[in-house]
User: What shape does this take?
Amino acid sequence: MDKPAKHALSYKPLMAYRLAEAYTLGAEVHWRNGNTPKALEYLNAIRQRAGLEELTAIDLETIMDKHARELCFEGKRWFFLKRIGKLVEQVNKYHRFGSTISSIVDTTMQEHMVRWPIPQAQIDAMGTFPQNPEY
Assistant: This one.
């Protein structure tokens, strides 16, 4: 399927999900609903495939860690952290700018940065649609 000319600013013709992603999401859902045994079953299925020991306890940190390890470099982390409400905390905790020891500085992500600015072309196309706050 080809992208129609002048139809969209971005286009993704194929959505891909990995089994580990489905298991991680399932584990989170069951954990949030109080079904710890089922949540552990899902995470342990991933760990068993990797030859790791089974987990006996689960919490949000465990789910976040498994998500980070299984889906690193696949472009899903921002959206996962945003969805669970941990984006600002994690960025401020781990992200640094700089290329040398003397130039590295901490970043300070603000709450409004969870929503990206709307491109001006989109605002113009929608008429009087407002920009996200603080941009």
In short: The radius of gyration is 19 Å. Helices lie at 19-32, 36-49, 60-70, 77-84, 87-94, 120-126. The chain has a mean pLDDT of 88.
